[in-house]
Design brief:
Shape: globular
Order of helices and strands: HHHHHHHHHHHHHHHHHHHHHHHHHH
Pfam families: Sugar_tr (PF00083)
Main location: membrane
Distance between the termini: 33 Å
Number of helices: 26
Structural class: mainly alpha
GO molecular function: symporter activity
Keywords: Membrane, Sugar transport, Symport, Transmembrane, Transmembrane helix, Transport
Radius of gyration: 24 Å
Helix content: over 70%
Family: Belongs to the major facilitator superfamily. Sugar transporter (TC 2.A.1.1) family.
Length: 541
């Protein structure tokens, strides 16, 4: 599709007649949107250091970034729920087994079913967000999860516990799908990667809180401890009611609903200048107009996704593939069953197991914070290489260590230390790369008309592979040993390196409308869009 002209209007604001400054060279020509504080010294030089208008634009730039930051935080609160559930269940399952006397198979079903059930929430979330808006889908996710968490807290039996688990899964499915899409649609291109990574850091924060909850309430009686652990998970969803009063609707969704004036008002809040808001609105309207003009031959969204054109097929391979590899490399096995893995390595007491698990949660959260700092500076693809290669190395070492421990060829104390370090290393490499980037890319590579439901399809792929790993891990370990299971994960992780090299383009600092050209333009157009990648790294260096 053709993009609107990159020429910026000559006048800023309504009057003045002063020309917009040219973009600094270090941007490499990649992004048409530049932070106003970056050009402040140049304008001061032109105006002799005066110019109250410059100060106004700088203040607006900072204000708009703070506003987008706040909206991203509020939109990511549902992700805390997913993370908390993942983290807390690793400890809860120890006490649920004692209290309700559930079997090993029931443990696997209880842990793994959340991922499968959440796929229904993700699929429904795509259609719901297209019909009712991104903002209100976030609220619906919180309501459904609250209901599920309440049922689980007071469950008298395994069957009632499963009912609550199913409700919570649907709510999590809604939340995990909609947050990255919403954030991508309100964020400026230059910082979209960082902001869209927020749901992943909130997932990791939730996991850490879940681990801490396990440790904090583990001293309570068995029939009370796991109920308190699950009840605490309701608290983050309550704050979402306040968030809905603060965050705006997605401007891109508003344009699709022909509510252009409302979209313009939102863009004025999230951009650095009136001219940038006008330009972004023109691009969004152009993308929406292409859809309305019949580019898709009157196909429905799902017809376009199930019988895709070559362009959409390339997008789907990238989006669904990276979601699959994020989970099938075994991260949820490490998170859900870290106490089981550490027990297999030789740690025996429950308190020691939970402390080691908290360490895993800390590493996961700390390194996702590092990823947020680097994702727009270094780029998506370099971080993916670091992540997938590092995970492969850690999984190989972990498999070898567990095998040597099983055969008594390494001392118990040394084996425990290496096992803890490699588990922490694997989650660290995961968190600095493929963990957040899979959600970033799934929310930014698809065209406007398909974005929410294609992102939902990606979330379904993520949850299906997560559930398959979580529900089969104990059985696989029993069949081929724990070290054998992690050897399989290591091979799959090595394949993810090849996938990143072959199918994942660099999307950093490109507008959502430009990214489509990476998949759909001719060779020359794609080369022009990609040209800024190397230039930007040179200038940044």
């Amino acid at each position: 599709m053709g993009l609107p002209s990159a020429e910026l209007p000559a006048a800023i604001g309504g009057g003045g007649g002063r020309s917009m400054p040219s973009l600094p060279g270090f941007l490499g020509g990649k992004s048409k949107y530049v932070r106003m504080d970056d050009v402040l010294p140049q304008e001061q030089g032109e105006d002799g250091g005066g110019g109250g208008g410059v100060g106004v634009r700088v203040r607006r730039s900072r204000s708009s970034r703070r506003y987008v930051f706040a909206c991203s935080v509020f939109a990511s609160l549902n992700s805390v729920l997913l993370g908390y559930d993942v983290g807390v269940m690793s400890g809860c399952i120890l006490f649920i087994q004692k209290d309700l006397h559930i079997t090993e198979v029931q443990q696997e079903v209880l842990v793994g079913c959340l991922s499968f059930i959440s796929l229904f929430g993700s699929l429904a979330g795509g259609r719901t967000s297209d019909a009712f808006g991104r903002k209100w889908t976030i609220g619906l996710a919180a309501i459904v999860f609250q209901a599920g968490a309440a049922v689980m807290t007071f469950a008298p039996s395994f069957h009632v516990l499963m009912i609550g688990r199913l409700l919570a899964g649907v709510g999590i499915g809604f939340g995990v799908m909609i947050a990255p899409v919403y954030i991508a649609e309100i964020s400026p291109a230059a910082s979209r990667g960082s902001f869209t990574s927020f749901p992943e850091i909130f997932i990791n924060l939730g996991i850490l809180l879940g681990y801490i909850s396990n440790y904090a309430f583990s001293g309570l009686p068995d029939h009370i401890s796991w109920r308190v652990m699950l009840a605490v998970g309701i608290l983050p969803s309550v704050s979402i009611a306040f968030a809905l009063l603060v965050i705006p609707e997605s401007p891109r969704w508003l344009v699709m609903q022909n509510r252009t004036d409302e979209a313009r008002a939102v863009l004025l809040r999230v951009t650095d200048s009136d001219d940038e808001a006008k330009e972004r609105l023109a691009e969004i309207e152009a993308a929406a107009a292409v859809t309305s003009a019949g580019k898709y031959d009157d196909k429905t969204v799902w017809q376009e996704l199930t019988r895709p054109s070559p362009v959409i097929r390339r997008m789907l391979i990238t989006g669904l593939g990276i979601q699959c590899f994020q989970q099938i490399t075994g991260i949820d096995a490490l998170v859900y069953y870290s106490p089981t893995i550490f027990r297999n390595a030789g740690i025996t007491t429950e308190s020691q197991l939970l402390v080691a698990t908290v360490a895993v949660g800390f590493f996961k959260t700390a390194f996702i914070a590092i990823a947020i700092v680097l994702i727009d500076r270094v780029g998506r693809k370099p971080l993916l290489y670091i992540s997938t290669v590092g995970m492969t190395a850690c999984l190989v070492v972990l498999a070898a260590t567990l095998s040597m421990l099983a055969h008594g060829s390494v001392s118990k104390s040394a084996g425990i230390v290496v096992a803890i370090l490699t588990v922490c290393g694997d989650v660290a490499f995961f968190s600095v790369g493929i963990g957040p980037i899979c959600w970033v890319m799934s929310s930014e590579i698809f065209p406007l008309r398909l974005r929410s439901q294609a992102a939902a399809l990606g979330a379904v792929m993520n949850r299906v592979t997560s559930g398959a790993v979580a529900m089969s891990f104990l059985s696989v370990c029993r069949a081929i040993s724990v070290s054998g299971a992690f050897s399989v994960f290591a091979v799959i992780s090595a394949l993810s390196v090849v996938f990143v090299h072959r199918f994942v383009p660099e999307t950093s600092s490109k507008t959502l409308e430009e990214i489509e050209l990476l998949f759909g333009g001719d060779g020359q157009t794609r080369a022009e869009v990609e040209l800024g990648d190397g230039e930007q790294l040179v200038h940044k260096g």
